UniProtKB/TrEMBL annotation:
Origin: domain of life: Eukaryota
InterPro entries recorded: DUF4371, RNaseH-like_sf
DUF4371 domain: residues covered: 1-197
TM ranges: none
Record organism: Triticum aestivum
PANTHER family named in the record: PTHR45749, ZINC FINGER MYM-TYPE PROTEIN 1-LIKE
The protein's name: DUF4371 domain-containing protein
Length: 264
């Protein structure tokens, strides 16, 4: 009878130990992801095999954590190979949960108020077109904030397609297009076009979503226009560009220039 009772007790103890070890591994994986996200560091390595001298930031940081914490080391030692919680899939799940928490804090700060949209698109290193979306708003303390809320892969760069993507992310955040009070883009026709650009399509639905041309792009356009009219200005910027390019590869000359500037 005692033997029969001891079997379920032993299984229960083993199960509790496995649960505890699993929780330790989960917390360790979360801590590693939190650190890398906070520092803005990449996760994966080119070669993550056991023989690799550099397995990437995530694996290397986890190995370092295991090396300096006996409890975590024991939890990983007891874990089967398919339950190490080191795969890219697990990392993506953790990252997505962090993103949800951050967005939740942003929406709480926004407090269902009005906001402006800042949008730009460009190609990443894999040659895919990506659209970054930022919202700008004033919080309950009267402070203006700009918060990144998402990046979306876009297969087209037409104004209609980009608007559908913006509508998607606004809906995903639980917000309404009627809360938009401003738009900020570059001067590309698909974004800033007066009749068929993205800003025009949004203003047709919400006349309060005023468009403001990106100030950095406006300054660039002003400089280009002046350089075309006044050749001395064009020559000046050409010389600056030449100096920067040349001194970037000549350490000694750059140091001499810095010393000369300091003396003056």
């Amino acid at each position: 009878m005692k033997m029969e009772q001891s079997i379920p007790v032993a299984l229960h103890k083993q199960s509790e130990l496995e649960k505890n070890d699993h929780l330790i591994r989960v917390n360790a994986a979360i801590d590693v992801c939190r650190y890398l996200l906070h520092q803005g560091q990449p996760f994966r390595g080119h070669d993550e095999s056991k023989e690799s001298t550099n397995k990437g930031n995530s694996r290397e940081l986890m190995d370092y954590t295991i090396m300096h914490n006996d409890v975590i080391a024991k939890a990983f030692k007891n874990a089967p190979e398919n339950n190490q919680l080191l795969s890219s899939t697990i990392q993506k799940d953790i990252i997505e949960h962090f993103a949800e928490e951050v967005l939740s804090c942003i929406l709480k700060e926004l407090d269902n108020g009005v906001f402006s949209l800042l949008v730009d698109e460009c190609r990443d290193v894999s040659d895919k077109e990506q659209m970054a979306v930022v919202i700008r708003y004033v919080d309950t303390h009267g402070l203006s904030n700009e918060r990144f809320v998402g990046v979306l892969h876009v297969e087209e760069t037409t104004s209609a397609y980009l608007k559908s993507k913006i509508d998607f992310i606004i809906a995903k955040l639980g917000l309404s297009p009627q809360q938009v009070r401003g738009q900020g883009y570059d001067g590309a026709s698909n974004m800033a076009g007066e009749f068929n650009g993205l800003q025009a399509k949004i203003m047709r639905e919400n006349s309060s979503a005023y468009f403001v041309h990106c100030f950095a792009h406006k300054l660039n356009l002003v400089v280009v226009a002046i350089a075309k009219k006044i050749f001395d200005v064009g020559d000046f910027f050409d010389m600056i560009s030449l100096l920067v390019t040349s001194l970037d590869h000549l350490a000694k000359e750059r140091i001499n220039l810095e010393r000369t500037i300091e003396k003056k």
